[in-house]
Design goal:
By secondary structure, the chain is mainly alpha-helical. The chain starts with 13 loop residues before the first helix and ends with a helix. The model has no long low-confidence stretch (mean pLDDT 84). It is found in: Cell membrane. Keywords: Cell membrane, Membrane, Transmembrane, Transmembrane helix. It is a multi-pass membrane protein.
Length: 589
């Protein structure tokens, strides 16, 4: 069905908009998502409510029967079981005994989460799961809000896997560029650049992802928050409540699995399952993409691989190794291990339901022509060629927000953006369009409550899902706003990423500080969030903060040294990572 057959074309926006609005207002994600699916079915069923209900059921069954989706649902069950074994076998206790004395503040735990996310750059799901499991208890102990933990996971994993240097995201993005070449009816030989080469040249133009990644580190190191996150972090530090009293986390491993065993806590039960997940998942994706065959390089293998099947193999290894370690080291018997598998599955049930309905919303949007309506409206606006990157960025943002899928957005827009850009401005604009398109698609993922990666971040941070979305939106909007400004500069003639990207980073840092100062003063809260110890020891005058009676001599802000091992290590690793990314990028020139 096309949106043109609807009585009002703008009704094509109704399914995702209604789902998102209801979710944000009622905080009942499942009901809101189903309402969006049903509204889309109602349009297709000629406004017959009984037929719409039946069609909604058909759509849900259809998405679950999709081979990719079926594999994904099974793998997240295995992931839940593997995570349960790490927790129940005492692996988390062993980790805390090993590193806990080095991670003493909320700032430390936030920086550590950011760093671990950088190392796992080959898949966003895997990065979210591993990083979330590795740092959740430390974050909890150090009074980092669940909202902040979810933000660090969400805004680190997708940008990092977008850049690579090797990831399933890169393989998918390159495959979309190939589709764009076909839509434009030219070959790589004709234009003198391969799809992979074009992707490499697009990296410095993915301004949003660089800024999102930078903001996580900058906010964590400086402890300058704003928006709802400022309130969440103050609650966590002052009241030691890492979640709101009436928050509903998507997964609570302590409630679902029980208390961890203290019989024989060992780091092997923490690291062995995670390493098996990484190694088996990565090797499986490489193998399934034909990497073992002569003449197939790593990039091609990840482009051609079956992502869901590779991660399914990895997640099974994650669960199996966790079970073997738990039984082998005597932390639980076989019966307890079997019960832990079931308990781990239970931790994922709500998440699985939300993900299925999120997919169904995407299917409903496809059926009523949501994305095509957005594209047609944007293209018909007759914006000059130099403004085309801004147009594509905005279109990608809106499509990803309303459909909840960055990959789907890339699939929709890339076949349009490449031929349109080539006809209007020539080959030189294509790297710009691809960079901003990929960035805009990920922005939509970051702010949409119906995005599967956003759901996964909430799960493995133990956060209320809507709380995660509402606290992340101001940060994502800051990075997006600076990106829009850079694209406006591009439109008026500043066309070098060597100028625009550093300028964007500086402006983002300034925006974070300015917004922090404004919001903290407006709310009578600290600009630099203090540690819990500083509050408990009376170093921070809490009464003066809450009564608004601060004077020049009142200490209300936290104090942190930047010359410490954790922030210095973080800066060093990030610089090394960025050198790797840009070294990788130069292969395309």
């Amino acid at each position: 069905m096309s949106y043109e057959s609807l009585p009002i074309a703008a009704l094509a926006l109704a399914p995702p908009i209604i789902a998102i609005a209801l979710a944000m207002y009622t905080r009942q994600v499942l009901v809101s998502l189903f309402a969006g699916v049903w509204i889309g079915a109602l349009m297709i069923a000629d406004w017959n409510p009984i037929a719409a209900t039946a069609l909604s059921m058909d759509w849900i069954v259809e998405v679950v029967r999709s081979p990719f989706d079926t594999k994904f649902l099974i793998l997240i069950m295995f992931m839940g079981a593997g995570a349960a074994f790490i927790y129940k076998s005492g692996g988390i206790i062993a980790l805390q005994n090993w590193i806990g004395h080095r991670v003493n503040t909320a700032r430390d735990s936030q920086i550590l989460t950011w760093l671990i996310g950088i190392f796992i750059f080959f898949d966003s799901y895997t990065s979210t799961i591993v990083t979330g499991n590795a740092t959740r208890e430390l974050s909890q102990e150090n009074n980092t809000s669940r909202e902040m933990h979810a933000y660090v996971l969400d805004s680190t994993t997708s940008p990092v896997t977008t850049f690579g240097p090797v990831s399933n995201w890169i393989g998918y993005q390159v495959s979309m560029i190939i589709v764009g070449f076909e839509a434009a009816r030219f070959t790589a030989e004709e234009v003198g650049i391969t799809a992979f080469g074009l992707f490499l040249q697009s990296i410095p133009w993915n301004i949003y992802c660089f800024l999102a990644f930078f903001m996580v580190g900058f906010i964590s190191i400086t402890q300058r928050f704003y928006g709802p996150m400022l309130n969440a972090e103050w609650r966590a530090r002052k009241e030691k409540k890492t979640r709101r009293d009436d928050a509903t986390p998507l997964s609570d491993i302590t409630t679902d699995v029980g208390e961890p065993s203290e019989k024989n806590p060992t780091l092997i039960n923490f690291f062995a399952p995670i390493l098996s997940l990484l190694v088996v998942g990565l090797v499986s994706m490489w193998w399934l993409g034909g990497g073992h065959q002569s003449g197939v390089d790593i990039a091609t293998a990840f482009q051609e691989t079956d992502v869901a099947l590779g991660l399914l193999y990895g997640s099974f290894a994650f669960m199996a190794v966790g079970m073997l370690g738990a039984v082998g080291f005597g932390t639980m018997d076989l019966e307890e291990a079997s019960d832990t598998v079931i308990s781990g599955f239970k931790t994922m049930m709500i998440a699985a339901a939300i993900i299925v309905l999120a997919w169904s919303i995407g299917h409903a949007a496809e059926q009523v022509g949501t994305a095509q309506y957005i594209v047609d409206v944007m293209v018909d606006s007759s914006i000059p060629g130099s403004f085309l990157p801004l147009l594509i960025f905005l279109a990608a943002m809106f499509i990803a927000f309303t459909t909840g899928t960055s990959w789907g957005t890339m699939a929709i827009l890339t076949p349009l953006a490449i031929p349109l850009g080539y006809e209007m401005s020539g080959l030189s604009i294509l790297p710009v369009l691809m960079g901003v398109l990929f960035g805009g698609a990920i922005w939509g993922d970051h702010v949409s409550p119906i995005s599967d990666t956003t759901v996964m971040s909430s799960i493995f941070a133990g956060s209320d899902h809507i709380d995660h979305v509402t606290t992340q939106i101001p940060f994502a909007m800051t990075a997006a706003g600076v990106t829009v400004l850079m694209l406006l500069l591009y439109a008026v003639g500043v066309t070098s990423p060597l100028v625009l990207l550093p300028l964007a980073v500086v402006l983002t840092a300034g925006a974070v500080i300015a917004l922090n100062k404004f919001d903290a003063r407006r709310k009578n809260l600290p600009e630099v969030m203090p540690t819990t110890d500083a509050i408990d020891n009376g170093e921070i005058d809490v009464d003066a903060i809450e009564n608004g009676s601060k004077t020049d001599g009142t200490r209300i802000n936290g104090r942190y040294s930047f010359v410490e091992s954790i922030p210095l290590t973080a800066v060093g690793i990030v610089i090394a990572y960025l050198c790797l990314v840009f070294g990788f990028m130069t292969l395309g020139f």
